[in-house]
Specification:
The protein has 202 residues and is an alpha/beta fold. The protein is built from eight helices and seven strands, in the order ααβαβααααβαββββ. β3, α8 and β4 form a beta-alpha-beta unit.
């Protein structure tokens, strides 16, 4: 069993290394930065990885940000963390400090239901638009924190709400799980969510 586990971990790391290399190459390709080469489809991409490698992915994204900022990559990488976005949305509604008290008062499930109404996918999409516009040539939006906002927000719901306003810029969602071109599977464990408009970055 231990040998099989090590082999699975090695495969996950090899897959991540491949995806990291391809993603970095994409960030230097003129057609990718111009959102071309995928027909008439919206430029939404998934950067999937094994959830056990979350910290490695965070370090990799920090490296990409530094390289983009210093000019080593010819793009403006705009990273949006969904958990930070969630906190900002709650702060804007002036409810952030009251959340723990309300949860004790009403219960976890009711608090979750209320927060999902206030911080739904449309609110997240609007926040991302506000943080990234105007969209300029060379911009790439990278969304992180998908696992951190579960179960308040699911990737397919967010992307559906971003369709109208993000057709002019490539959007990459870092996803701790898998996407087979038709369905997301968060953490490689939860039930599949259907979505058909994204492309795997590799």
């Amino acid at each position: 069993m231990a040998i099989n586990r090590r082999t699975q971990e090695e495969r996950a790391r090899e897959d991540l290394e491949h995806r990291c290399q391809v993603f970095r190459e994409r960030l230097a390709q003129p057609d990718f930065l111009a959102n071309k080469g995928i027909g008439n489809e919206i430029g939404f991409y998934t950067f999937c990885y094994d959830p056990s490698l979350e910290f490695e992915v965070r370090a990799y994204i920090e490296d990409l940000q530094r390289d983009a900022e210093c000019g080593a990559l010819p793009c403006d990488l705009k990273v949006i963390n969904l958990y930070d976005a969630f906190l900002a949305l709650c702060e804007n509604k002036r409810i952030l400090k009251a959340i723990p008290r309300q949860e004790l008062k009403t219960g976890t499930q009711r608090q979750r239901d209320q927060l999902q109404k206030i911080c739904g996918p449309a609110a997240f999409a609007k926040y991302i638009l506000e943080q990234t516009r105007p969209h300029e040539p060379g911009d790439v939006i990278l969304i992180t924190g998908v696992g951190e906002v579960y179960p308040f927000l699911r990737a397919h719901d967010l992307l559906n709400n971003m369709l109208a306003d993000f057709g002019d810029v490539p959007v990459v969602i870092a996803y701790p799980g898998s996407f087979n071109g038709q369905q997301f599977r968060l953490f490689n464990r939860l039930g599949a969510d259907s979505y058909y408009r994204a492309f795997d970055i590799s």
